[in-house]
Design brief:
Layout (H helix, E strand, L loop, with lengths): L1 H45 L4 E8 L7 E7 L4 E7 L7 E6 L2 E4 L4 E4 L21 E2 L2 E2 L5 H7 E14 L2 E12 L6 E8 L5 E7 L3 E3 L4 E3 L3 E11 L17
Antiparallel strand pairs: 1-2, 1-15, 2-3, 3-4, 4-5, 5-6, 7-8, 9-10, 10-11, 11-12, 12-15, 13-14
């Protein structure tokens, strides 16, 4: 009798272990699959010869949407057009591969080395809507420097959803940004057919700064990515820097 009872207890023990192991195993597989999707997206974007997309950002307590158009050409050429809601406040940054022109200042300077590389991370790692970090602008950072300063982790799959008639897969992850103690929470919607981002939600980590009880972060920024084009022909004329009047 004791042997039978002992066998039953042992059976229940192993059954419980197997039951508990199923969700853990499934979750681990989900995390692996989500991370693979993320890496596949970044590979497609960073290896693109040309890349173009428009980012539409919504920030809490700001009525106007921020629209930013990105176009990457070959040989270090790129163009960034920023429209904060009114034409008078719009500005653009143009690089012909050697020099950059900033329209809001009307200045022309030599282009930072590797400046083009940051654009490919605008939909996955860099925080919208500014290509910057706590330690300063990312302009000129190489891909290796970006990967060290903006580290994604904690990947998981968060279901499926239709966006504008397209089937998308949602993945969630966090980004540890150099200079920030708290990580930022991200959700990325990826088009199942093209494997490219459709939209993103970023909740910036909230953390105290200074001795006065002030906080930064905590905002949730929502982005929609439109007109995403990879390795398509781009008009080279848009990378020409206008002639500046000599003072």
């Amino acid at each position: 009798m004791h042997a039978i009872n002992g066998s039953k207890a042992l059976f229940r023990y192993f059954f419980l272990l197997a039951f508990l192991a199923v969700p853990v195993s499934a979750r681990a597989q989900g995390e692996n699959k989500a991370e693979k999707r993320f890496k596949a997206v970044e590979k497609k974007l960073t290896e693109a010869k040309t890349l173009a997309y428009t980012s539409i950002s919504k920030v809490p307590h700001v009525k106007r949407e921020l629209e930013i158009g990105f176009v990457l050409g070959k040989k270090g050429k790129y163009r960034v057009q920023v429209h904060p809601g009114s034409e008078k406040d719009s500005w653009e940054l143009i690089s012909d591969g050697k020099f950059i022109f900033l329209s809001m200042l009307g200045v022309k300077e030599r282009s930072p080395e590797d400046a083009r590389e940051i654009m490919s991370y605008g939909m996955t790692r860099l925080l919208p809507p500014i290509l910057g970090s706590d330690s300063g602008s990312t302009l000129g950072m190489s891909s290796k420097e970006i990967e060290k300063a903006f580290v994604p982790f904690g990947f998981s799959t968060a279901g499926k959803e239709k966006v504008d008639g397209r089937e998308t897969v949602l993945i969630q992850y966090q980004i540890k940004v150099k200079g920030f103690k708290a990580p930022h929470d991200c959700t990325l919607w990826i088009d199942k057919e093209s494997g490219l981002p459709v939209k993103r939600k970023v909740r910036m980590g909230k953390e105290p700064i200074g001795p006065n009880g002030l906080y930064r972060g905590g905002l949730t920024i929502r982005e929609a990515f439109r007109n995403v084009a990879v390795n398509e022909e781009v008009d080279e004329a848009q990378f020409e820097i206008p002639e500046l009047e000599e003072e």
